[in-house]
Amino acid sequence: MPHGILLGAAEHPDYDEARLAMRPGDVLVMYTDGLVERRDRSVDESLAHLAQVLAEPAADLDALLDRTLELSCADTDDDTCLIAVQVLDDGNGRADRRV
User: Fold this and answer.
1) Origin, by domain of life (predicted)?
2) d(C-alpha 45, C-alpha 26), whole Å
């Protein structure tokens, strides 16, 4: 995984970069720490819970995001941002993206 400081924390930061090949049906989920922070649990435990929630099939991307927020184990007042990108098949064998 690429490393770097928080977005917006420095004027001219350096960030690692990585490439990820995605196929139709794949979903990339990005989130802030407010989704997984708990006072009584390690971040690793919260991340395992999140992975379990995301692994369950959903009717569509909106349903996946709604369920993820509903089942979030966070218990802090920290803001949460959740973004997902789903790769769709355009019907011609090419990938199309939905954000």
Assistant:
1) Bacteria
2) 24
Q: Cβ–Cβ contacts within 10 Å for residue 67, how many?
A: 15
Average pLDDT over residues 59-78: 89
Q: Which amino acid is at 19?
A: R
Three-class SS state of 82: strand
Half-sphere exposure of 81 (CA within 13 A, CB side): 3
Amino acid at the residue 73: C
The helix/strand/coil state of 67 is helix
- Based on the number of CB atoms within 10 Å of its own CB, is 10 exposed (0-12), middle (13-18) or buried (19 or more)? exposed
| Integer CA distances (angstroms), 65 to 16, 68, 84, 90, in order | 27, 5, 8, 22
Question: Are 33 and 49 in contact, with CB atoms under 8 Å apart?
Answer: no
Give tens-digit pLDDT for 37-61.
888 989 899 999 999 999 999 999 9
Tokens 């139709």 appear where? 24
